[in-house]
Write a structure and sequence with these properties.
The protein is α+β, with helices and mostly antiparallel strands and 430 residues long. Helix 9 packs across helix 10 and helix 11 runs antiparallel to helix 12. 33% of the residues are buried. It is globular and about 65 Å long. The protein has three domains: 169 residues, 2-Layer Sandwich (Alpha-Beta Plaits); 55 residues, DNA polymerase, domain 1 (Orthogonal Bundle), CATH 1.10.150; 163 residues, 2-Layer Sandwich (Dna Ligase, domain 1), CATH 3.30.1490.100. The strands form four sheets. A five-stranded mixed beta sheet has the order 5-6-1-7-8. The chain is built from 14 helices and 14 strands.
Length: 430
C-alpha cells in the first residue's frame, strides 16, 4: 500500500530550524537578577494587585516543581511555594527579542527568516551550510551566540519543513540539553506518531481533537491511517492538511508570505477583564473603549470597515455549557468611533442574556480604502465631516501628548480600563 512518504520527489526537503527562547519572560527576569535562567525559581505575574492576575511565564524549575505555567492564576500560588513573583517588563522583552533575531539573521537571509512569536522564530538554512557547517553546527553556533550575548538559553528543532522543525522542538528539543532535536521523514512512525495527546500536535486544538475523537481517531498514528475522504468531508480543506501533517508533510515556504486580501484583513482588540462585569453599563463602557481603539487604528491606516463583530466570554459556562458568544452586523463603511459604538451596542443588547463576563472583543472586517466621503441616505454631510475632523484632531492630540491627554467621559468611570491600559505594552506592564 502506497503512503504519502513513498514518492520522495513530492516531499518538501529543506533545512528548517524552529528556535525557541526557553521560558523567555522568566529567563529575562532571572538575568536581570544575575541568576542563571534555568536554575531560577521565578514566575512573571501580570496584574499582581488582583488575585485573578495571570502568570505569563515561569522558569523551568517552577514549572517542574510546582506545576505553575502560563495561565496559572495568582490565587493558585500557595505561600509554601518557593517562587519569586515578578512584574513583567514588556519593553525589555521586545528589545531583547529584537537583539536575538538580529543573531538569527546572521545565519540566513531575510526572505528565509520568519518571526513566529516574541520568543520563537523559524529560519531556513538550506543555503547556509558552506558558510556555517551542518545543521547541528549551525544550531550550536546560534545557541552559543545568543547565550553569550544575552544570557538566554535557546532550544532548536530541525526538520525538512516548518511542521517537522516545530514538532521536533516541542516534543524533543525542549526536554534536555543540548536542547536540540532533528527529525526526518523516516522518524515519522517512531517519533511523530507517538505524540500524545492529540492536542500536543502543533495545529490541533481542543475543538479539532474532540471532532477527531468522535471519529474514533485518538492518536496521530490513527490520523495518518484514517480515511482521507472522511477527513475532508468532516473538516473541508483542513482535513487534507491534517492528513498530510500526520505524515510529517508540510508545504509551507518561509519565503512566501501570506498577504491577506483587503476584504479579509481586519482590525480588532480584545481584553481579559480582571473581575466579573455584570451590568450593562460597565460592560458597554469597556466595549465602547475598545471601539475607540479599533476606530483609531482604522483612521491611522486610512481605511474603512463595514463588518463589525463582538465577542464575549462568560465568567463561567452557562446552563448549556457555552463559554461565550459572538455576533456581527454589516454597516456603511466607516472609521468613526461613534459608528462602531452604535453597531456594537446594537449587537450586545440583542444577544446579552445577563451573563457575568470576563472577556470582551470587537473586530472590524471587510476593509476598504475611502475613495470619497461615503454617506448613507440618512447622513448629514456637514455633521459627518465635522465628526470626522474631530476624530482626527483627537488622534493628533493623543499621538503627540499620549492617550491620556484626551479621554472620553465613560473611561473616567469605575468600569473604565482604557486609562490604566494606556500605560501598558502589549497589555502588560511596560
Amino acid at each position: 500500500m502506497m503512503t504519502p512518504l513513498d514518492d520522495k520527489s513530492r516531499l518538501p526537503v529543506r533545512d528548517i530550524m524552529c528556535i525557541d527562547c526557553k521560558s523567555f519572560f522568566a529567563s529575562t527576569e532571572a538575568i536581570r537578577r544575575a541568576e542563571y535562567p534555568l536554575a531560577a525559581k521565578i514566575a512573571v505575574l501580570s496584574r499582581s494587585e488582583s488575585q485573578g492576575g495571570l502568570i505569563l511565564a515561569a522558569s523551568p524549575d517552577t514549572k517542574k516543581d510546582y506545576g505553575v505555567k502560563l495561565g496559572t492564576r495568582k490565587y493558585e500560588i500557595k505561600p509554601d511555594m518557593d517562587i519569586e513573583l515578578v512584574a513583567p517588563h514588556m519593553r525589555d522583552y521586545i528589545t531583547l527579542n529584537y537583539r536575538i533575531n538580529q543573531i538569527f539573521r546572521q545565519f540566513t537571509d531575510d526572505a528565509h527568516w520568519y518571526v513566529y512569536s516574541i520568543d520563537e522564530a523559524f529560519i531556513d538554512v538550506t543555503h547556509s551550510h558552506r558558510l556555517f557547517g551542518s545543521n547541528r553546527e549551525i544550531a550550536t553556533q546560534i545557541q552559543e551566540k545568543v547565550f553569550n550575548e544575552t544570557g538566554i538559553v535557546t532550544t532548536v528543532g530541525i526538520g525538512p519543513n516548518p511542521l517537522m522543525a516545530k514538532l521536533a522542538l516541542d516534543n524533543e528539543a525542549k526536554e534536555q540539553a543540548p536542547w536540540q532535536a532533528e527529525w526526518h521523514y523516516e522518524d515519522v512512525p517512531t517519533k511523530l506518531w507517538q505524540i500524545a495527546p492529540l492536542t500536543n500536535f502543533w495545529s490541533i486544538g481542543n475543538k479539532t481533537a474532540d471532532k477527531l475523537e468522535r471519529m474514533n481517531i485518538h492518536t496521530i498514528g490513527e490520523l495518518a491511517h484514517a480515511d482521507r475522504k472522511a477527513l475532508r468531508k468532516k473538516f473541508g480543506v483542513l482535513g487534507d492538511a491534517l492528513y498530510f501533517h500526520s505524515w510529517g508533510i508540510d508545504y509551507s515556504d518561509l519565503a512566501k508570505r501570506y498577504v491577506p486580501c483587503a476584504e479579509n484583513k481586519g482590525y480588532g482588540n480584545s481584553q481579559v477583564l480582571m473581575r466579573d462585569y455584570t451590568t450593562r453599563q460597565e460592560i458597554e463602557t469597556v466595549l465602547f473603549e475598545i471601539c475607540d481603539q479599533v476606530a483609531t487604528r482604522l483612521r491611522e491606516h486610512d481605511v474603512l470597515g463595514e463588518v463589525v463583530s463582538v465577542q464575549v466570554g462568560f465568567s463561567t459556562a452557562d446552563d448549556a455549557g457555552q463559554h461565550g458568544w459572538s455576533a456581527q452586523t454589516k454597516i456603511d463603511p466607516t472609521n468613526q468611533t461613534n459608528d462602531l459604538i452604535r453597531a456594537v451596542q446594537y449587537l450586545f443588547e440583542k444577544r446579552w442574556q445577563g451573563n457575568a463576563l470576563r472577556n470582551l472583543g470587537v473586530r472590524v472586517n471587510r476593509i476598504s480604502k475611502p475613495n470619497s466621503l461615503q454617506l448613507s441616505l440618512f447622513s448629514n454631510q456637514r455633521q459627518t465631516e465635522a465628526n470626522l475632523k474631530l476624530e482626527h484632531t483627537i488622534d493628533q492630540i493623543r499621538s503627540r501628548y499620549g492617550y491620556r491627554a484626551i479621554v472620553r467621559g465613560y473611561s473616567k468611570t469605575a468600569a473604565g480600563t482604557a486609562i490604566d491600559r494606556s500605560k501598558l505594552v502589549g497589555g502588560h506592564q511596560a
